[in-house]
Structure formats: structure tokens, C-alpha cells
Design goal:
Blueprint: E1 5-10, H1 17-25, E2 36-41, H2 47-59, E3 65-71, H3 74-77, E4 83-86, H4 102-105, H5 108-115, E5 124-127, H6 132-141, E6 150-152, H7 155-169, E7 176-177, E8 180-182, E9 190-192, E10 197-198, E11 201-202, H8 203-207, H9 210-222, H10 224-232, H11 238-251, E12 261-266, E13 278-284, E14 292-293, H12 301-320
Parallel strand pairs: 1-2, 1-4, 2-3, 4-5, 5-6
Antiparallel strand pairs: 7-10, 8-9, 10-11, 12-13, 13-14
The structure holds nicotinamide-adenine-dinucleotide and (2S)-2-hydroxybutanedioic acid (LMR).
(2S)-2-hydroxybutanedioic acid (LMR) binds next to helix 10.
Length: 325
């Protein structure tokens, strides 16, 4: 068996974790020969419910699941971990925007950022809980873990964008590549169709319908989370868990030549984004948990306007939480 991995999941009794934990435990993401030690973190009020999740994990008899531990405090939960999935936080309801969650969810990431100092030297932390970019910014600023170990999820948006483009073009989703979600995981994100490709050709040429790309594709992807909430009465869960696994998989697998993936990471000033801001970029990885922003992608003035709107929204969110940074 390979070297074991310790994986912490916060919000472990919640609906995203109800999909995420089982797929992590099954060996799907870290390898069929790699023992997984699960550190499940919850608030004290739901530890009974978490016991039930632990029972079900046990009942799956996953050969890769070496240990299940339950915690109601982050300091213990993050001790010695190699990977953190920070999911635990309140979801929005119908009619709300994700940014409205900052005041209630932001403070969670102060303590959890500090608790990450107890993790293993190689720890990586990805944030799902909304508003994901700014929660990640808070965790990163409260932690001694290097900034480049933190990322927030844009992958659900990328997957949504790819599926919409594939359906419109009438091709399998695997034919869509180079999809970028710039900026914030919000309804101001910019899903970039100008640089996306379908079967290696520019997506805009293949689809050949600029009005659809601007007026249907972009709002559909931007508003998909709200559409799921309206239809389901609860926010996306299985698709969010799947995207979280795709996100980590893209960081631990070499990026195929010529392609990239989207995640929100700490800007080093690429594309004139304020250094230190968590921003959705196109990335490549060598597969060691590292990432590099793909630079020099062209953008029309129209696209840059969308990009700037998302950037300005993230600046506003940063201002709202400045006391937590
Ligand atoms: P949920 O309410 O079902 O579960 C959240 C869990 O977090 C609850 O069990 C709650 O007890 C727990 N929790 C709350 N505070 C905690 C803390 N301080 N420490 C540990 N656990 C804590 O919600 P969900 O549907 O699983 O969604 C979780 C979050 O993920 C929400 O903020 C939601 O908006 C967000 N989300 C993000 C994306 C994305 O693409 N980034 C996608 C879907 C959902
Ligand atoms: C999503 O995009 O589905 C999640 O961020 C949940 C939400 O609030 O929309």
C-alpha cells in the first residue's frame, strides 16, 4: 500500500459531504492503494448525525478507508492532515446571493485558518463553503501555511460551462477543453467562451452564435446555482462534491498538454489582479499539488469588462471582511 493520506472534511454531516466523504473513502481520488484516514469536522450540535455518517462509511467496507475520526473542533481535526476540504458553512436559500453569507460564514474561516497550522508540512486546503473565494482569503490570511497551498472552488462553474457548450454544439462533454471561469464564484463570474475550445477548435467558431454565447450561455452558468436551489429547494450537493474531487484531482495530476483547469488561487498580479486576492484563473499543474496561472490569454474589451466586474466584486467582499484578515 502507498503512504496513507489524512483528509479533513468540515461540514461532514452536511449534504455535500454526504456525497464527498464516500467518494474520498472509496479510493477514487487519492488512489486505490492509498489508505485514507478521514478526519470529519462538525459543530457540536450535530455530532449525533455525524455518528450516522460514520456508521454508513463503515458499512461500505471500503478497503482504502483506514480510519474514521470525528471532531467538534478544528484544532484537533486538522492535526497532521495532508488535505483539507473546507465545506462546513451555511448555504444560501432562494432569493439570496452568496455574498450575503459573508457575515455568518466568514468568521468560521478565521479559526480554521489558524488550525491549519497544525497540519502536515505538505498540507493543501480547498474551500467550498460560500462565498468560497473570500472564505478562502480569510483562511489563508489567518494561517502560516504558504498562500499557494490554498484554493477555492470554481470547478462546478467550469463543469457547468463545459456541459452547456457541449450540449449546444451537440458533442460529448469530453470534447470541450480550455474552459476558464474568471473571478468570483458568484453571479458576476465570467465564463470565458473566447478561449474555450471544442474538439481543439475555438468554441465560438464551432457554435457560431455570438448572441447565444453572450446572452444565454453566460447567464445560464452564472445563475446555475440559483436555478438548482429553485428547483431542488436546496443548494447543489452531488455536483458540488464531484467538482471538489475534480478540483483536487486537477492539482494532483499533470495537466494535459495545451489544456488548463479553473480554480481560485492567490493572485501574484497576473492579468493585473490585485496581488493577494483569491481569484478564479486558468491553471496548470505538474501534479504535485502545485499550480501556475496560464498567462497571456487574449480577451476582448467586452470580456475584460466582465472580468473587471468580478474583480471589483471580490475587492468589495475583501473590504467587508477586512477585520477578519
Ligand atoms: P449543509 O447545510 O447541508 O451542510 C453544512 C454543514 O456545515 C452543516 O452540517 C453544518 O453543521 C456544518 N458547519 C457549520 N459551521 C461549521 C463549522 N464552523 N465547522 C464545521 N462544520 C460546520 O450545506 P451544504 O449544502 O453541504 O453546503 C455547504 C456550503 O457549500 C454552503 O456554504 C454552500 O453554499 C457551499 N457550496 C459551494 C459550492 C461551490 O461551488 N463553491 C457549491 C455548492 C455549495
Ligand atoms: C452553487 O453554485 O451551486 C453553489 O454555490 C450553491 C449556491 O448557493 O448557488
Amino acid at each position: 500500500m502507498a503512504v496513507p493520506i489524512r483528509v479533513a472534511v468540515s461540514g461532514a454531516a452536511g449534504q455535500i459531504s454526504y456525497s464527498l466523504l464516500f467518494r474520498i473513502a472509496s479510493g477514487e481520488i487519492f488512489g486505490a492503494d492509498r489508505p485514507v484516514h478521514l478526519h470529519m469536522l462538525e459543530i457540536p450540535q450535530v455530532m449525533d448525525k455525524l455518528e450516522g455518517v460514520a456508521m454508513e462509511l463503515t458499512d461500505c467496507a471500503f478497503p482504502t478507508l483506514a480510519e474514521i475520526k470525528m471532531f467538534d473542533n478544528a484544532d484537533e481535526a486538522f492535526d497532521g492532515i495532508n488535505q483539507a476540504f473546507l465545506v462546513g458553512s451555511r448555504p444560501r436559500g432562494p432569493g439570496m446571493e452568496r455574498a450575503e453569507l459573508i457575515k455568518v460564514n466568514g468568521p468560521i474561516f478565521v479559526g480554521q485558518g489558524k488550525a491549519l497550522n497544525r497540519a502536515a508540512d505538505d498540507v493543501r486546503c480547498m474551500v467550498v463553503g460560500n462565498p468560497a473565494n473570500t472564505n478562502c482569503l480569510i483562511a489563508m490570511n489567518n494561517s502560516d501555511v504558504p498562500n499557494d497551498r490554498f484554493s477555492a472552488m470554481m470547478r462546478l462553474d467550469e463543469n457547468r460551462a463545459k456541459s452547456q457548450l457541449a450540449a449546444k454544439a451537440g458533442v460529448p462533454v469530453a470534447d470541450v477543453s480550455n474552459a476558464t471561469i474568471w473571478g468570483n464564484h458568484s453571479n458576476n463570474q465570467y465564463p470565458d467562451f473566447e478561449n474555450a475550445k471544442i474538439d481543439g477548435k475555438p468554441a465560438a467558431e464551432v457554435i457560431n452564435d455570438e448572441a447565444w454565447l453572450r446572452d444565454t450561455f453566460i447567464p445560464t452558468v452564472q445563475e446555475r446555482g440559483a436555478a438548482v436551489i429553485k428547483a431542488r429547494g436546496a443548494s447543489s450537493a452531488a455536483s458540488a462534491a464531484s467538482a471538489a474531487l475534480d478540483h483536487v484531482n486537477s492539482l494532483i495530476t499533470p495537466t494535459p498538454a495545451g489544456d488548463w483547469f479553473s480554480a481560485s488561487v492567490c493572485s501574484n498580479g497576473e492579468y493585473d489582479v490585485d496581488p493577494g486576492l483569491m481569484f478564479g484563473f486558468p491553471l496548470t499543474s505538474t501534479g504535485n499539488g502545485d499550480w501556475k496561472v496560464v498567462e497571456g490569454l487574449p480577451m476582448s474589451d467586452w470580456a475584460r469588462g466582465k472580468f473587471e466586474a468580478s474583480l471589483n466584486e471580490l475587492r468589495t467582499e475583501r473590504e467587508v471582511v477586512k477585520d477578519l484578515l
